[in-house]
Amino acid sequence: MSAKAVEAPKKISRDDIEAKFEELRGDVDARAEAARMPAMAIAVGAAVLTVCVAYWLGRRRGKKRQMVLEIRRI
Fold first, then answer.
1. Distance CA 38, CA 31 (A)
2. Distance of alpha carbon 45 from alpha carbon 2, whole angstroms
3. Domain assignment present for 4
4. pLDDT level of residue 2 (50, 70, 90 thresholds)
5. Is residue 59 part of a domain?
6. Distance from CA of residue 13 to its chain's centroid?
7. pTM of model > 0.85
8. What percent of the chain has pLDDT over 70?
9. SS3 14
């Protein structure tokens, strides 16, 4: 039977942790930047749609409740 040599685990330094964190952060920043423009376009579209629907519903309600005033001359 041959025994494999077991190496002692390498100690993780602060620099190793910081390097890995910066690598992960770079990936996340790139994805966030790529998703920012479509998200802003959707938000602006939803805001415009909300304003248009509110205007339309308000105008419709105003027409329903509009008073008709007749003035007759005698």
1. 12
2. 69
3. no
4. low
5. yes
6. 36
7. no
8. 81
9. helix
Question: What is the Cα Rg of the chain in Å?
Answer: 33
Residue position matching structure tokens 């494999």 = 4
Number of domains in the chain: 1
Instruction: Give domain status of residue 7, yes or no.
Output: no
User: Residue holding tokens 């419709």?
Assistant: 60
Cα(53)–Cα(42) distance, integer angstroms: 16
**In this structure, what token pair is assigned to residue 33?**
């930047």
The per-residue pLDDT for range 10-45, each reduced to its tens digit, is 888 899 889 888 888 887 888 888 888 888 999 999
* 8: amino acid identity, one letter: A
On the question of pLDDT at 51 being above 90, the answer is yes
- Give, in order, the Cα–Cα distances in Å from 42 to each of 8, 30, 31, 56: 53, 20, 17, 21
Supply the range of the domain harboring residue 38. 14-66
